[in-house]
Amino acid sequence: MMKVGILALQGNVSEHIYMLKRLGVEAVPVKTPLDIMNINGLIIPGGESTTIGRLMERFDLANSIKNRAAEGMPIYGTCAGMILLSKRIRDHEQPSLALLDVTVLRNAFGRQGDSMETDIDIKGFDSPFHAIFIRAPVAVEPGPEVEVLASVPEGIVFLREKKIIASSFHPELGEDLKVHKYFLDIIGN
Ligand code: GLN
Question: Structural domain tally of the chain?
Protein backbone atom coordinates (compact mmCIF):
# COMPACT_ATOMS: atom_id res chain seq x y z
CA MET A 1 0.00 0.00 0.00
CA MET A 2 1.16 3.50 -0.79
CA LYS A 3 2.55 5.37 2.23
CA VAL A 4 2.95 9.15 2.19
CA GLY A 5 5.01 10.99 4.80
CA ILE A 6 4.34 14.52 6.03
CA LEU A 7 7.45 16.29 7.29
CA ALA A 8 6.46 16.91 10.89
CA LEU A 9 8.91 19.48 12.25
CA GLN A 10 6.55 22.46 12.36
CA GLY A 11 3.46 23.64 10.49
CA ASN A 12 0.25 22.14 9.04
CA VAL A 13 0.86 18.42 9.44
CA SER A 14 -2.44 16.92 10.60
CA GLU A 15 -4.45 18.73 7.91
CA HIS A 16 -2.47 16.96 5.16
CA ILE A 17 -2.80 13.62 6.92
CA TYR A 18 -6.57 14.09 7.04
CA MET A 19 -6.77 14.90 3.31
CA LEU A 20 -4.70 11.84 2.38
CA LYS A 21 -6.73 9.54 4.61
CA ARG A 22 -9.88 10.77 2.89
CA LEU A 23 -8.23 9.66 -0.37
CA GLY A 24 -7.66 6.23 1.14
CA VAL A 25 -3.88 6.18 1.50
CA GLU A 26 -1.68 5.67 4.53
CA ALA A 27 -0.30 9.01 5.74
CA VAL A 28 2.24 9.31 8.53
CA PRO A 29 4.21 12.12 10.20
CA VAL A 30 7.94 11.79 9.46
CA LYS A 31 10.84 13.34 11.33
CA THR A 32 13.90 11.07 11.12
CA PRO A 33 16.17 9.93 8.27
CA LEU A 34 14.85 6.38 8.83
CA ASP A 35 11.26 7.59 8.42
CA ILE A 36 12.26 9.17 5.09
CA MET A 37 13.53 5.76 3.87
CA ASN A 38 10.14 4.14 4.46
CA ILE A 39 7.75 6.29 2.44
CA ASN A 40 6.70 6.47 -1.22
CA GLY A 41 6.18 10.23 -1.29
CA LEU A 42 6.76 13.25 0.96
CA ILE A 43 4.77 16.40 1.69
CA ILE A 44 6.61 19.41 3.12
CA PRO A 45 3.86 21.48 4.74
CA GLY A 46 3.34 25.19 5.24
CA GLY A 47 4.62 26.86 8.38
CA GLU A 48 7.71 29.01 8.82
CA SER A 49 10.29 28.09 6.19
CA THR A 50 13.30 29.37 8.17
CA THR A 51 12.28 27.26 11.20
CA ILE A 52 11.52 24.13 9.18
CA GLY A 53 14.78 24.58 7.24
CA ARG A 54 16.85 24.91 10.38
CA LEU A 55 15.24 21.86 12.01
CA MET A 56 15.68 19.89 8.79
CA GLU A 57 19.43 20.48 8.97
CA ARG A 58 19.64 19.87 12.71
CA PHE A 59 17.95 16.47 12.40
CA ASP A 60 20.04 15.59 9.34
CA LEU A 61 16.96 15.29 7.14
CA ALA A 62 18.04 17.47 4.23
CA ASN A 63 20.48 14.89 2.84
CA SER A 64 18.03 12.00 3.29
CA ILE A 65 15.34 13.93 1.44
CA LYS A 66 17.73 14.90 -1.37
CA ASN A 67 18.90 11.30 -1.75
CA ARG A 68 15.32 10.01 -2.01
CA ALA A 69 14.50 12.80 -4.50
CA ALA A 70 17.49 11.73 -6.62
CA GLU A 71 16.03 8.18 -6.64
CA GLY A 72 12.76 9.62 -7.95
CA MET A 73 10.63 9.87 -4.82
CA PRO A 74 7.83 12.41 -5.44
CA ILE A 75 7.73 15.45 -3.16
CA TYR A 76 5.01 18.08 -2.72
CA GLY A 77 5.76 21.38 -0.94
CA THR A 78 2.99 23.74 0.16
CA CYS A 79 3.76 27.40 0.92
CA ALA A 80 6.81 27.25 3.23
CA GLY A 81 7.41 23.85 1.61
CA MET A 82 7.61 25.55 -1.79
CA ILE A 83 10.24 27.93 -0.41
CA LEU A 84 12.25 25.02 1.00
CA LEU A 85 12.27 23.23 -2.37
CA SER A 86 13.40 26.22 -4.43
CA LYS A 87 16.92 26.75 -5.73
CA ARG A 88 16.80 30.53 -5.34
CA ILE A 89 15.21 32.56 -2.56
CA ARG A 90 15.14 36.29 -3.30
CA ASP A 91 16.79 38.58 -0.72
CA HIS A 92 16.98 35.97 2.01
CA GLU A 93 19.64 33.58 3.28
CA GLN A 94 18.11 30.34 4.52
CA PRO A 95 18.57 26.58 4.15
CA SER A 96 16.90 25.03 1.13
CA LEU A 97 16.78 21.63 -0.56
CA ALA A 98 17.36 23.34 -3.93
CA LEU A 99 15.33 20.82 -5.95
CA LEU A 100 13.15 23.18 -8.03
CA ASP A 101 14.66 25.46 -10.65
CA VAL A 102 12.77 28.62 -9.70
CA THR A 103 13.32 31.83 -7.76
CA VAL A 104 10.90 32.24 -4.90
CA LEU A 105 9.69 35.54 -3.43
CA ARG A 106 8.55 35.21 0.17
CA ASN A 107 5.42 36.96 1.41
CA ALA A 108 4.73 38.01 -2.16
CA PHE A 109 1.21 39.31 -1.59
CA GLY A 110 2.19 42.09 0.82
CA ARG A 111 0.33 43.04 3.97
CA GLN A 112 -3.18 42.92 2.53
CA GLY A 113 -2.41 39.42 1.27
CA ASP A 114 -1.75 38.05 4.75
CA SER A 115 -4.65 35.76 4.18
CA MET A 116 -6.43 35.63 0.85
CA GLU A 117 -8.72 33.25 -1.01
CA THR A 118 -9.34 33.14 -4.74
CA ASP A 119 -10.39 30.69 -7.42
CA ILE A 120 -7.58 29.77 -9.78
CA ASP A 121 -7.41 27.79 -13.00
CA ILE A 122 -5.01 24.85 -12.82
CA LYS A 123 -3.64 23.29 -15.99
CA GLY A 124 -5.29 19.91 -16.59
CA PHE A 125 -8.02 20.41 -13.95
CA ASP A 126 -11.60 20.52 -15.25
CA SER A 127 -12.86 23.16 -12.79
CA PRO A 128 -11.37 26.14 -10.90
CA PHE A 129 -9.68 25.41 -7.58
CA HIS A 130 -10.48 27.45 -4.47
CA ALA A 131 -7.00 28.46 -3.29
CA ILE A 132 -6.21 29.71 0.22
CA PHE A 133 -3.03 31.79 0.59
CA ILE A 134 -1.44 32.67 3.95
CA ARG A 135 1.62 34.94 3.82
CA ALA A 136 2.34 33.07 0.64
CA PRO A 137 5.33 33.07 -1.68
CA VAL A 138 5.24 33.05 -5.48
CA ALA A 139 7.77 31.59 -7.88
CA VAL A 140 9.35 33.44 -10.81
CA GLU A 141 12.15 32.76 -13.30
CA PRO A 142 11.22 29.10 -13.97
CA GLY A 143 13.96 26.99 -15.55
CA PRO A 144 13.37 25.02 -18.78
CA GLU A 145 12.25 21.83 -16.96
CA VAL A 146 9.58 23.60 -14.90
CA GLU A 147 5.95 23.16 -15.89
CA VAL A 148 3.78 26.07 -14.73
CA LEU A 149 0.43 24.68 -13.51
CA ALA A 150 -1.15 27.91 -12.20
CA SER A 151 -0.28 31.60 -12.00
CA VAL A 152 -1.75 34.80 -10.57
CA PRO A 153 -0.62 38.36 -11.44
CA GLU A 154 2.08 38.21 -8.72
CA GLY A 155 3.70 35.06 -10.15
CA ILE A 156 3.55 31.26 -10.31
CA VAL A 157 1.49 29.58 -7.57
CA PHE A 158 1.57 25.92 -8.65
CA LEU A 159 4.33 24.19 -10.56
CA ARG A 160 5.94 20.89 -11.35
CA GLU A 161 9.46 19.78 -12.19
CA LYS A 162 9.54 16.04 -12.95
CA LYS A 163 8.16 14.35 -9.81
CA ILE A 164 8.31 17.38 -7.55
CA ILE A 165 5.40 19.80 -7.21
CA ALA A 166 4.92 22.95 -5.17
CA SER A 167 1.99 25.24 -4.43
CA SER A 168 1.92 28.68 -2.79
CA PHE A 169 -1.56 27.93 -1.52
CA HIS A 170 -2.87 25.48 1.09
CA PRO A 171 -5.21 22.82 -0.35
CA GLU A 172 -5.14 21.06 3.04
CA LEU A 173 -7.13 23.94 4.52
CA GLY A 174 -9.97 23.62 2.00
CA GLU A 175 -12.37 20.85 1.02
CA ASP A 176 -11.19 20.06 -2.49
CA LEU A 177 -9.04 16.93 -2.70
CA LYS A 178 -7.95 17.42 -6.33
CA VAL A 179 -4.43 18.74 -5.66
CA HIS A 180 -3.66 15.91 -3.23
CA LYS A 181 -5.11 13.46 -5.77
CA TYR A 182 -2.80 14.96 -8.42
CA PHE A 183 0.17 14.28 -6.13
CA LEU A 184 -0.94 10.69 -5.47
CA ASP A 185 -1.18 10.12 -9.22
CA ILE A 186 2.50 11.15 -9.54
CA ILE A 187 3.43 8.66 -6.80
CA GLY A 188 1.36 5.93 -8.42
CA ASN A 189 2.99 6.27 -11.84
N1 GLN B 1 5.61 33.20 5.02
C2 GLN B 1 6.04 31.88 5.41
C3 GLN B 1 7.51 31.67 5.12
O4 GLN B 1 8.09 32.49 4.48
C5 GLN B 1 5.22 30.83 4.70
C6 GLN B 1 3.82 30.87 5.17
C7 GLN B 1 3.10 29.59 5.10
O8 GLN B 1 3.69 28.52 4.92
N9 GLN B 1 1.81 29.64 5.28
O10 GLN B 1 8.06 30.68 5.52
Answer: 1
Q: Is 47 in the pocket of ligand 1 (CB under 6 A)?
A: yes
- Tens digit of pLDDT for each residue in 124-178? 999 999 999 999 999 999 999 999 999 999 999 999 999 999 999 999 999 999 9
Give me the CATH number covering residue 86: 3.40.50.880
Is 45 close to ligand 1, i.e. is its CB under 6 Å away? Answer: no
Supply the pTM of this predicted model.
0.97
Q: Are 116 and 131 in contact (CB under 8 A)?
A: no
N residues, the chain: 189
Query: Is residue 49 within 6 Å of ligand 1 at its C-beta?
Result: yes
Give the domain range for residue 90.
Answer: 3-188
Which residue's CA is minimally distant from atom 2 of ligand 1?
A: 48
